[in-house]
């Protein structure tokens, strides 16, 4: 992992503020994790590591692209583990969204300074090390990615299915976290 990625993650989380006390507590927990783990963004950091994701939206059509995750069996936003070549959390989220959606030209929503800004944090348990391994914790930093007009998705080997859903028509197999993220994205676009 690059020092640049760790520094960017710390700066991103220090700069990001939420009016929601639960979100702000998660932000502080993420910062504590990074302070105690120089490798805190890498999959090998157990029992927890920071991940990056982005919900892909098409504002003109009022829809969101979700992936049916093979390990989780639910419809989720695009995202995953940071890689050694990632220099920023936003870059990791955009890379994951592009790889998993097959859509070129995605752009992350930005703040007043023009830099991509997270919209939500989510801590959840997963078995990313394998079915026979203990669960670990993903400390997910979530962004919104806007698809260019007329974007066509292309399913990758990381998905069982990839499908557009109307903002008001999310699938039954999506959890509360995804529904909250889509609601935030809809309000922002």
Automatic annotation (TrEMBL):
Alphabetical list of PROSITE patterns matching this protein: NUDIX
Protein name per the record: NUDIX hydrolase
Keyword Hydrolase (UniProt): yes
Keywords (A to Z) from UniProt: Hydrolase
A GO molecular function held by the record: hydrolase activity
CDD domains: NUDIX_Hydrolase
Entry keyword S-adenosyl-L-methionine: no
Organism whose genome encodes this protein: Kitasatospora arboriphila
Segments forming domain Nudix hydrolase: 47-187
